[in-house]
Amino acid sequence: xxxxxxxxELTHVFIDLFxxxxxxxxxxxxxxxxxxxxxxxxxxxxxKCFLVQVDEYKKSDAIFNSDYVYxxxxxxxxxxxxxxxxxxxxxxxxxxxRSKVIEIASNDGYLLQYFVEKKVPVLGIxxxxxxxxxxxxxxxxxxVDFFGVRLAETLAAKGIKANLLLGNNVLxxxxxxxxxxxxxxxxxxxxxxxxxxxxxxxxxxxxNQFDTIYHEHFSYLSFYTVQQIFAEAGLEMFxxxxxxxxxxxxxxYAHHKxxxxxxxxxxxxxxxxxxxxKGMQGLDYYDNFTQxxxxxxxxxxxxxxxxxxxxxxxxxxxxxxxxxxxxxxCGIKSDLIEYAVDxxxxxxGKFMPASHIPVVDLEHxxxxxxxxxxxxxxxxxxxIVQQLAFIRNWKGQFVVPIPSLQIL
Length: 408
What we know:
CATH topology of the largest domain: Rossmann fold
Number of helices: 13
Shape: globular
Helix content: 25-40%
Number of strands: 17
């Protein structure tokens, strides 16, 4: 395997989570007795550009299809984040009815709906037709397609250019990251701004977030590496923010390298220096991650077996992709976790891949009254603890497995 950016041969294994189905390939009842397809989940670190990556074992167009079950609008904290972002961009850059805001991977219109409310023209680009349909119902014009140079050239030929070109949690999801960033260069207006948000590799390593590794995520990104990829396409970073979403993410700001409109802030060099001081530009930083993940696996299995022996009832909350990675790496099935509650009706009534844990609605949890609720999407644990505070009425307790097992 070669690095998807610099084409260096990859031999340094970051972590091997073994074989697993695609994390969002939920099953219907009638599929439970059918064979499932498992793909390797082995990640490598590039010794030259330090891009951590997994090969495209399952093609992206097979992952992001019309059966895609992730709808962004079912998280209230994520909607709040999207609205705050909209207000910040309008205040900082002055976008108005003469501007054009384009979001790549616009999902169900969770973010662009707030620009629509402010009368700012928008366009969503989304490869999954079912989520794009939900966006259209929110007044978000959408193009159902994968983004890259081809689509960017098609849109630019129609006179469509972005004053603000954004993408949240998409940069890691593209197998051809060079083509993707090259497309942004084409679609960006002369004085336009790009913002991208993605989980920060530094947080993944430092906080043992191995469960964020799954087949939808082809790349795991540091600021150092992303800066190189954008520079190769003729795009320059002029600002960066560390934000708390998804366990610790970056929001990068970029413009055309030849654009002098935006001053490069001190944040850029400060974050580069921070990553360097951590050792992120050397392979030693990426060693021993497997052992840290193994400890989480053993601790979680010990906890579940102990509760099973004691006759306790254990459920999970949040049938998230990261939860599927964790459950499948640990080999957990429905005999140890009876069900997972999820607010997304597109997941309810289905079964989690490999583990075959049924996904149910909140009412089921209220009736069942489990002793423990394991929070799989730990990145929004505060939101979940608040929503499910009623489990304290029957002395239920919350459990968070990452970065280490904790009973709240």
